[in-house]
Amino acid sequence: MKSSRRDYPEVNAGSMADIAFLLLIFFLVTAVIPKEDIGINRKLPPPCPPNIDCTEGIINMRNILEIKINAKDELLVDNVLISIDELKDITKVFLNNNGDGSCDYCAGLTDKESSDNPTKAVVSLANDSETSYEFYIKVQDEITKAYYELRNDYATTIFKKPSNKLTQEELQEVKKAYPFILSEAEIKN
Predict the structure, then answer these.
(1) Running DSSP on this structure, what letter comes out for residue 164?
(2) Residue 155: its pLDDT value, please?
(3) Cα(153)–Cα(147) distance, rounded to whole angstroms?
(4) 126 - beta bridge partners?
(5) Any idea what the Cα angle at residue 147 is, between residues 69 and 159, rounded to 5°?
(6) Which H helix or E strand runs over 48?
(7) CA gap 135, 125 in Å, rounded
(8) Residue 164 backbone phi and psi in degrees, to 5
(9) What is the pLDDT of residues 24-60, one digit of tens each?
(10) Which pTM value belongs to this model?
(11) What are the tens digits of pLDDT across the range 149-167?
């Protein structure tokens, strides 16, 4: 009697691993890895050229707003503990003082405890190595908001239009009136 069973030929699976490996390499090589913008966009000053004294131009302490973030994520401005919500307004008052009378539209905003002029004002940010990144970014955001609002106020007062409608030349003038001068360091014990 004949058997109803048939022998089927087996498929050679030896090269399957090679094919899978080649496909894996193909997808790894052709895949586009998204590049996320992480961090803070800041333009660093150029390095000091050789044989030039870069220590000249000592800054008057009156023109420095000292902001410190300790390891417990506490915010101190001129060694006074404040909340993050107060930082933007304190920074704006400090920057917008114009004690030397060089600002046409900010008359009456002088304060003896603030900077001489926005072009001379330096925001000094010092943080502990144990400061959380999230809180550090919040502080950076508040400082940036202060500059943005002051620049926008300047643009609407001087050019009668918001800062996002300015020409390139007008925008450069606004940035010249309120230069973003930020000094960053780590708290030293």
Answers:
(1) G
(2) 92
(3) 10
(4) 68, 185
(5) 175
(6) none
(7) 13
(8) -80, -5
(9) 999 888 988 777 666 667 666 677 788 877 766 677 7
(10) 0.67
(11) 999 999 999 999 888 888 9
